[in-house]
Amino acid sequence: MRKVILPLCFTLVRPHLESCVQLWSPQHRKDMELLEQVQRRATKMIRELEHISYEERVRELGLFRLEKRRLQGDLNAAFQYLNGVYRKDRGNIFSKACCDRTRSNGFKLSEGRFRLDIRKIFFAVRVVKHWHRLPREVVEAPSLDTFKARLDEALSNLV
Fold it and tell me: What is the chain's percent helix, strand, coil content, to nearest 5?
């Protein structure tokens, strides 16, 4: 059953849950739980795993919770933007911090201050605090594939 459900989940369900997540990322806990419930039900369909907790099922199947997958997508998009993949965009979404005092990674982004709380959920603001928590070897990855591999390792300890 595992050989059938997992590929179906990866090819049919997850793309719908993760498409354009950088634009519409849910910020309310109830919305996140509704999305997570879809993955919860899909993992519960595997007979040998139906009686264990959701966290254990996700760990057993080698999956991430959707919240962590959204963060992973955000950081991937930020890495691509910072490395010039989106050259058509002339605006500066991110700007490098001017401070030379850095502890973890050497590529800090500046955080803007805003009067409205709605700005906290914008992509550029949402990514900055997580970017600062990444280790130096992740941020300074030479390619996107290397970044993704190192990010997976870092996220297992980060969130």
Answer: 60, 0, 35
